[in-house]
Amino acid sequence: MDDITNSSKRLNGSLDLPVLVIIEPLLLPRTCILNVLRRELAEFEIRDMATVQSLDCTSALDVRLVVLSIADKPIGDPAVEDDLAFVAECCPSAAVAILSNHDDEPTAQAAMRRGVRGFLPTSLPIEVAVAGLRLVLVGGVYRPLPVPGMSRMPDFEPPDARGFASAYLMNERARAAIDRSVSDFTPREQQVLAELELGLPNKLIAAKLNLAESTVKMHIQHIMRKCDAHNRTEAVLRWRGRLPAQSRDHAPGGAAPMSETKSP
Questions:
Q1: Which of 3, 30, 212, 213 gives 24 a disulfide partner, CB atoms 3.0 to 4.6 angstroms apart?
Q2: pLDDT tens digits, 2-48
Q3: Any domain includes 7
Q4: Which residues form a coiled coil (predicted)?
Q5: Alpha-carbon span 165 to 112, nearest angstrom
Q6: For strand 19-23 and strand 45-49, is the pairing parallel, antiparallel, or unpaired?
């Protein structure tokens, strides 16, 4: 009965919930996004609109975030510039996130230069997109970052901004090595590794796992040492069996010297 009452109050607008607005011209993707966010962000009132002009009706609402879908348009498109200006005029206190079919670095940088606090390529897994929105809602900035060190890593294709590709064939020896390495990781380190595989930055990992960013860095340092890796990219690839462990000179007790352990 309480759930029914609360739903009724919400529909009638009698609860002053903070508002998140989705602007997507196409009905089907807009409805899908709306349903996911209403489930994942129940502490917000989620409103959906086909155009930015509908923001005129939100002047009395506490709009915290506007998610604007631009599809294939470049950030510099005059229509996108006009939409961003209209959002800023109607909702001056709201953060803005862009939903784009592009996932290249120049597009992400162009969005950030225009004050966008979240850049969400449509190629992202839904759980990553939701985590990115959560980060923006608590005052952070989310954008897929280029994976560091990939130009120095031989014999494989670099992953894109969505994270690390894991669809590859492994022989039985590699699988056995993974099983052994996984057993060496604590449950929390395995959680951090799973987020690293998605290509997430430390701040977003911390937000998803409810950890301090310094704690995430500590876990990554432990992971790199256990994987005998120079950086986080190499650690994930070794964990997934894509790169063999390489022998390096170690300090007594098996720990890598501090000069060889790069900051995570």
A1: 30
A2: 344 444 444 444 458 899 999 999 999 999 999 999 999 999 999 99
A3: no
A4: none
A5: 26
A6: parallel
